[in-house]
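Pasting as-is:
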Amino acid sequence: MANIQGIAASSGIAIAKAYRLETPDLSFEKASTDNPLFEIERLEKALEVSKQELEKIKAHTKENIGDEHAEIFSAHLLVLSDPELINPMKDKIESEKVIAEAALDEVATMFIDMFKNMDNEYMRERAADIHDVTTRVKAHLLGVSIPDPALIDEEVIVIANDLTPSDTAQLNREFVKGFATDIGGRTSHSAIMARSLEIPAVVGTKEITTTVNKDEMIIVDGNEGLVIVNPTQDEIALYHKKQEEFAKQKQEWAKLKNEPTITADGDQVELAANIGTPDDVIGVLDNGGEAIGLYRTEFLYMGKSQLPTEEEQFTAYKSVLEQMQDKPVVVRTLDVGGDKELNYLDLPKELNPFLGFRAIRFCLENEHVFRPQLRALLRASVYGNLKIMFPMIATLEEFRSAKAILLDEKEALKKEGFEVSDEIEIGIMVEIPSTAVIAKQFAKEVDFFSIGTNDLIQYTMAADRMNEQVSYLYQPYHPAILNLINNVIESAHSEGKWVGMCGEMAGDPIAIPILLGLGLDEFSMSATSILPARTQIRKLDKANLASYKEKILSMGTAEEVVQFIKEKTE
């Protein structure tokens, strides 16, 4: 028996035997060829078969998880069609007279190493995509079957070093009761997909594949981030009881689906959801969402060969607004760059794209991209309760410029005979420390703030949250972060404006009482987190939590904050 601690990535408890998801032996002997044309044909055939498989996985993902997750495979398909990757393979076959496997392996390894060693999240994700895709192609060249999680036909818990997006998308909830991995975090693709599938998951264990053998009985506790290997009968009985309690808890949560979010002392806040596509609205409403706090519009631009038209965007925005039936919908304008690169846009190659030409910076310099989106949003505004926010705002000048373009398009549409709502609130995301510091000045001009904690934390702490060596600095409860959040909230309230939060922190059970005490008005999170958050908030006394504010803000470490808030709320 062994207990392995990891990161709680998706709630719930699973009890089943282990299924080791392992990459097959793809080794080969490098050999020369006297028929390079034949080898190029082999490569092209393997690429085509891989594309067909990925199209099927994409369709399966779209049907079972949603459009947003399916777009991952649009990116994989683009990799398979990328001439910068494929042409060097063909060139190597011709010039060096090597077999297709060798050319693919050498070129893929070169790209993977190059991207993996660049110090930003987008490049590392790009490396993982290339590895996932080229592994599939290599398997076809070698005639080796790669693991197919979709074929699992008995109850198991999947263990792996990591789960690729294609692995996770194929998991069948009927048989895959949970998974555990050596690496990963709460914001990795596999963790996000696990929450969408409602499969218990523990990631970042560092040792699951070296500790657990095939068919060993294990327990995955996705609530506590714990994996128990070869549990005793007493432990199995205990966790079966915990499973039953969790199932009952979910039934209790469901009773609050149509209830308002009111604290124990009668204060009301709003629980909203983050979405990426119109299809995601169903999950928001099924989980009792009172609003959409973040509609990530970049998914309209991804997986395409050109910019979406104004009409395509109008249709998508109109659909979301109509489905929400006058409930607030906060739409973030295009946030491209950083970890979201579009091949058909001529974005500069930057050493650090997260601090570069992205989001509002790109849009203000590319009005031919920005204006059609604003026109589509304005035209859709008459179909619901639309609020528009600009991302990555660092200065007042940026906000004023973006708002001026929006108002310019509003007047143009009216002259063209289009009806446009006069009730649209215009706000900004607060994700840059400079904006949080001078929130008082911004509050005089914006209609609302939405705090994007994922970026705010890493920018404030100067620590890439995906870099394992500095991941300890990604601290949502650090007093520096809490003081910035408090300044934003106080500044907004002094001007009669409201403040939401759309980062991971908004749905965090430890952060929720802190944020309530600071006076946050709207909490936006993944749809499946809404009912647990509502249950928690209904038990909390906001006035008591507010009385702890000064003490919490004066603390020196995140650990002190966590210990204090646990003592006061448990």
